Amino acid sequence: SAADRVDAGLPTAVVVSNVIAVGTSHGLALIFDPNQALRLCLGSTSVGAQYGAVSALSINSDCTRLLCGFAKGQITMWDLANGKLLRTIMDAHPPGTAILHIKFTDDPTVAICNDSGGSVFELTFKRVMGTRTCESRCLFSGAKGEVCCIQPLLVKAELRDHPITQYGLLAMASLTKVLVIGLKPSLKVWLTFPYGKTNPASVPLLSWHFIAVQNAVTPMLAFCRGGTIHFLLVKKDESGAVHVSKQKQLHLSYELINLTWINSRTLALLDSAEKLHVVDRHSQEELEMVDMAEVQLVYNSSHFKSLATGGNVSQALALVGEKACYQSVGSYGAQIIYLGTKSVHIITLRTWRERMDCLLKQERFTEVLALAWSFHEGKAKAVVGLFGDQSKRQGVIADRMVEILIQFADRALRKCPDQGKIQVMEQHFQDMVPVMVDYCLLLDRTDLLFGQIYSKLSEISVAKGVFIECLEPYVLTDKLTSITPQVMKDMLIHFQDKGMMETIEACIVHMDVTSLDIQQVVGMCWEHHLHDAMIYVYNRGMNDYIMPMEKLFQIIGPSLRAGKSLSDEQVIMGNKLLVYISCCLAGRAYPLGNIPEDLVPLVKNQVFEFLIRLHSTEVAPDEEIYPHIRTLLHFDTREFLNVLALTFENFQSDKQAVEHQQRIVDILLKVMVENSDFTPSQVGCLFTFLARQLAKPDNTLFVNRKLFDQVLEFLCSPDDESRHAERQQVLLELLQAGGVVQFDENRLVTMAEKAAFYQVCEFMYEKQQLYDKIIFCYLNDPVRKEEIFNYVHNMLSIPGYSAEDKASVWSKTIEHSKDLVAINPSKAAELVATHFTTELGSILEKLEDQHLLFLLLQNLLNPTDGGQVNRELQRNPQIHEKYIDLLCQFQPDRIPDFLRLSEHYRLEEATQITKRHQLHEATAYLLEKKGDVHGAFQVLLEILKRKLSLLTENEGEHSEELVQATESTLEETIGLCQRNSHSLNQQQREALWFPLLEAVMSTQKLLKDGSSSPAFESLKHLTKQVLNSMTGFIALPSILQRILQDPMYGKGKLGEIQGLILGMLDTFNYEQTLLETTTNLLNHDLHWSLSNLRAAVSRGLNPKQEHCGICLQQYKRRQEGTEEVIVFSCGHIYHSQCLHNKNCGVQTDGQTRWLCYKCNSSNKGGRHRDMGSEVNRGRSTSLAQIKVTSAYYSTSRDSDNKKPTEMTLDLQQLQAFDELRRLYRGPSRLAILTELSRNRGGNKQGLLHATSTHSITNSIFQNENFQLRLSPPPLAEE
Question: Which tens digit of pLDDT belongs to each residue from 865-889?
C-alpha cells in the first residue's frame, strides 16, 4: 500500500537492520520501522527514470547510512536519520553496467560494490573541507573472470576486538572459483578455491558466520554452487597469517539459490524449486521444509542481464542471473526476510516453548513429549530460548513435561470410547498409558506415576489393567524396583485374576521386598507353587536361607526314598534345589544378584550344617541317616558332586572350611559305599570326584585307599555282566581324573583285562608305553575294532614315538594282519599300501582264507574300488596274476574290466588262468591283446556257435534271455573283427568275416522249415547285422558271390535271398549319400576360408604418421619427384629409397620383398637370419603396400606413366599362408576326397566323374603347390 501511494513500482531489493529498506523499480527506497510503518521515502520517480530501478541496498553497522545501487550504474548514499541525500556517485565503476551488489564493511567509510561487468570495487568515503567525496579502487577486474557475489566479513559489536578484524576479509565468488582477500593492511589474496565441474546455470552463494570451535569464536565461510556446500574455517595463526581449513561438506539432492545462516548450527537453504530447507550443520539432518511458492520471490535477473544499459553482459553471467535472488533475501539476528512481489515475509525459528505449544494445540502428546525429552537430553536441533546451565535447563523442561503428562492423562480419560467392545478401550489406553509410564520413569518421577496419574487412571478398570500390565517390562529389566504397596497389591490381584502366575513370580524376584505385603505374597506362593518367589521372599525379606530348602526337600524326598520315578514338576524342583544350594555356597543370591557380603559366611555355614544333618526336622520312622545328602545323591549324583566341587574351589583355606570338606567326603563315602542301592555309574562319579580333589596340589582331604580298591573290585566284577559299558566308562573317568595313583597298576591292568575293559587297558598301556599291546585292545573290543587302522597309521606316521615303539607296533600289526583284513579289507589294504608294501608277500602267505586274500588284493589292485596301485605292486606281476585267479573264482563277471584297466600282469600266464577257469571272453581279450587275432576269433566263434546251437535246440522254448546273450556274443565277435580288419589284408579279412557269416547262415539253414518261428526271425536279424558290419571291410561282389555259392541259397529261388540283397543295397545307398554330403561340406568350407582370406588382405593400410619413419620428412611434401611410398600393416610408412638405404629389402625369385625397418630392428636376431628360420620370426615383418607418390601427385593427370600399384607378400605372410594350408590340409583336401571316392570293391568306379579328367587334373585341388598371391589378415600392433 505504501508503494501504491508514492508510485514506487514493484519491489526489487530489500535490506534489514534496525529498519527494513525496500528498493523499487521506479528508483525509490522505502524505509519501514520494526512495526511496519513507513518512515521514509527516499528518492523520486524522476530520479528513478534517470537512474533506473534500485538493484542493490546496504545499511551500515549503526544503521545511520543507506547505500543504493541502481540498474544504470549510479550509487547514492542517504542519511537514515533525516532522509537527506549525502552522496551521488557516478564514476565508481565503468559506465554501462548495473550495480549487482553493494555492501558496507565494518568500517563505515568503506563499502564494496560489484557490477554486471563482473568487476569489484572498493569505495572509500571521505569528507574534505566540508565536501563529501568517494574514491574508488578496483579489487578484481571482470576481464579475469566475472564475480557475481560478494560478502564482506561483518563483526558484531561484542567481537570488535577479534584478531581477524584487522584484515578486513572479503569473500568473492566468480563463475569458476571462490576468493578470500584481505583489504587491510594491504590488499592480499588469502584463498583461491575452484568449484570443479558444476552446472553453469547454478548460482554461486556465500555466507559468513561466527561459530564456537574449541572454546574460541572463529569465522566460518559457507559457499556453494549447485548441490554441495563447502565450509571453510578461517583462523589467524601464530605467524600472523590467515589460515583457511576445509571442514566437512554438506551434499544435497537439490540445487540452491540462497544460503543463509540462522545460527551457528542451523542453515536456511532455498532451492531452485523455492522450497526452504532448515538443516542442522553438524548432523546434516533436515529439520523442516517449507514451500515458499506463495511468497512470489523477486529475482534479480534483469540486473544480471543489465537490461537497463543495453544488455552488454556475458552469456555465462546472464545464465546465472536466471535464478539470482541475492537482493531479495536479507538476515538480521535470527530472522530472515524474503522479498516477494507484493509483500515481505519474515522467517524465524520458534523458541522451544513455542515448538511444544504448537504440538500441544494439535494434541500430539506423544510427539511433544519426545521433543521435550530431546530438549532435556540436549539432542534436539535448532533450539532457541533455552538458557542457563544443563541442570537448570533440565529442571525447566522436566516441570513442563510433568504438566504435559497430567494433561495427557486427562485427555486419555476424556477421549475414552464410551461404547463398543472392550478391545477398543484396551487399544485406546495401550496407545497412551505406556508413553506416560515411560516418561515418568525417564524423569524419575514415580511419585507422579503412582500418585496423580494412577489415581486418575484407576477410575476406569480397563485403564487400570493396562497401566498395571505396562509396569511388567520395566520391573523385569530392573528399571522399576520400588512400587507403592497399594499399586503392588493391585498388581498381584490383577495378574492372579488373569491366571498370569508366572508373570507374578518373575516380577516378585525383581521387586524391593519392602514394597511387598509379605503375608499376601507368601500365601500366594505356597498356593500356586511359586517357588522362586518364595525363596526370594524368605531370603530377602526374612534372611532365612534354610526354610526354602526344607520345603523343596519335602517335595522330592518321599518319592526318592520310596524308589518311585519323579514327575516333571518334581524334577524341576530338584534342579531348583541344586541351583539354590550352589548359589548359597557360592555367595550368590537366588535367582538374581548376590548375597550381602556380611551374610555370606553365615549362609554357607547354615547350608552345610543343614546338608550334613543326621536326620531331618520331621523324622520319618524309616528315615536313614543323612537324609538330605542321600536325597541329592539319588536325585542327580553327578550334578550334586559338581556343586560340591565348585564349592570346594571357592573355599578359603581356614580350619572350618577344611573340616566341612572332610566331613562332607566322609558322609558321601559312608552313604554310597555302605549301600547297595547306588548304580556303578553313581559310585564311579563319587570316586571320580574324590580322585580330582585328591589330585589337587593343595589337597587336604584324606581318603582310605582301601575304598578305592573296593570300588575297583566292584567295577571290575567279572560275575556282573550288566552295565558293562557303564562300569568301564566310570573306571576310565576315574583314572583320567587322577585316580590312577590310588591303585596298584599291575593289579589294575589284570582286573581290567579280566573284565574286558579294553579302553582302561589302552589307557594303562599308553601310560606304560606298551604301544604294541594296545593293538590287542582294539582287536578284542567289538565296539572299537575299526579304530585300529587309525591307531596303527598314527603310530607309524606321527613323530614323537621312538623307533623301538614303532618297530614293536609294526611287527605286531604284521602278526595280526589276518585279523585286520577280516575287520575291514579296504582299510587294511590302505594300511598295507602305505606302510607294509615290503612285507606284502609274508602278509599274503598268512592269509589262508582264499576269500580274505581276494578281498585284500581287490582293494590293493583294483583301481575301480578307489585303491591306489603302489609302485612296488606294479613291479610284482605274480600278485596281479594271483588276483586274476581269485577274481575268476569269486567274481568272474569283473574279469574283463580288470584286464582292460590293469597292465601289470603277464599275458601268457593270465591266458592260462582264464582258460583254466573257462572264461572264454576274457581269454579272447587276452589273445587279441597278444596279437593272436585268429585265436581270439576262434574262441569267440566257438562260444557263438554253442549259443546258436542252444537257440536251435530250444526253438520251441524261445527265451528272450538266450536271444540277448547270443546277440551280445555276436556283437563282441563283430567288434573283434572290426577292430583288427584295418591291419589285415583282404584274404585275412575274409578268413575272419566269412566263417562268422557261415556260422550264422548255417544255423538259419537248420530252421529253414520253421521260417515263421521267433528263432528264425532272430537269426535273420543276426545275419543282416553281420552283413551290414562286414560291408565296410569286404568287397560287395565277394559277399554276394559267397552267398550265392552257399548250398542253402545257391539252389533256391531269388525271393529267398531278396531280403539280404536289398539290405546290402540300402547300405550302399546310405554310404553314397554320406560321401556326397561330406564332399560338399569340405568344398564349402574351403571356399569360405579362401573368401575370408582374400577379403582380409584386400583392405587398404592406414599409416600412423604423415612422415617417413627413417628420414622423418613428410611423404606428401618431399620435393624429389616421384617416389614409391611403402606402408606396412604395423602402420609404419617409409620411402622406398630410405628402406633400400637401410638394407630392408630381400630379393626372392627376382622380386624385392620389403621388411619394416622399426619392427625388424626391434627383433634381436635382425633380418640376416637364414630363410629357414622365418617361422620363428613372429611379428618382425608386416604386410607392405607400395604406392607411387610425389609432391605433385595429387594434381598430376599423367599418372599412367608412373609405376603402377603393386601388392606383394612378405615373409610373415608366406609363413601365415603355409600355416593356413597346413591346418586345412589334414593331410590334404585332395587326399580326403580321393579316399572317399576310391573304389570300394576293386572294380567299382569312383563317384567323382561329374567333371572331366582334364578339368580335374588342372584343378587347384590337384596341385599341392599352387601359388596364392594374397596375405593373411593384418595383425594389430601390440
Answer: 444 556 666 667 888 888 888 888 8
pLDDT at 7 over 90: no
- Residue 188's identity, in one-letter code, is K
Which amino acid appears at position 162 of this protein? Answer: H
State the Cα–Cα distance between residues 565 and 574, nearest whole angstrom. 13
Q: Please, are residues 796 and 790 in contact by the beta-carbon 8 Å criterion?
A: no
The total number of residues written for the chain in this structure: 1278
Query: What percent of the chain clears pLDDT 70, i.e. is strictly above it?
Result: 85
Crossing angle of the two packed helices 745-754 and 758-767, in degrees rounded to 10: 150
Closest C-alpha to 431, from 403, 411, 455: 411
SS3 208: strand
Beta strands in 272-373 (DSSP E): 275-280, 286-291, 329-332, 335-339, 344-348
Residue 557 CB contacts under 8 Å (≥ 6 apart), including other chains: 616, 627, 631
pLDDT of residue 1120: 53
User: Where do the structural domains in the chain lie, given as residue ranges?
Assistant: 2-348, 352-473, 480-705, 774-928, 933-1056, 1062-1278
Reference 1181, options 1212, 1202, 1139, 1206; nearest CA is: 1212
Identify which of 993, 1003, 1004, 894 has the alpha carbon closest to the alpha carbon of residue 940: 993
Q: Is the pLDDT of residue 639 over 50?
A: yes
Are 826 and 865 spatial neighbours (Cβ–Cβ below 8 Å)?
yes
User: Residue 26: what are its φ and ψ, rounded to 5°?
Assistant: -95, 15
Q: Which residues contact 9 (CB under 8 A, 6 or more apart)?
A: 3, 24, 25, 26, 28, 48, 53
Residues 272-301 as b/e (b if ≥16 CB within 10 A, e otherwise) read bebebbbbbbeeeeeeeeeebeebebbbbe
Percentage of the chain lying above the pLDDT 90 cut: 21
Instruction: Count other C-beta atoms under 10 Å from residue 1059's C-beta.
Output: 12
Cell reading at 245: 581449513
Q: What is the pLDDT of residue 710?
A: 73
Of 553, 607, 559, 542, whose CA–CA distance to 576 is shortest? Answer: 553
Distance of alpha carbon 27 from alpha carbon 46, whole angstroms: 8
Contact call for residues 307 and 12 (beta carbons, < 8 A): no
pLDDT at 466 over 60: yes
Q: Angle 34-53-320 (CA atoms, 0-180°, nearest 5)?
A: 95
Provide the 8-state DSSP code for 798: S
Q: Does domain 2-348 have CATH number 3.90.380.10?
A: no
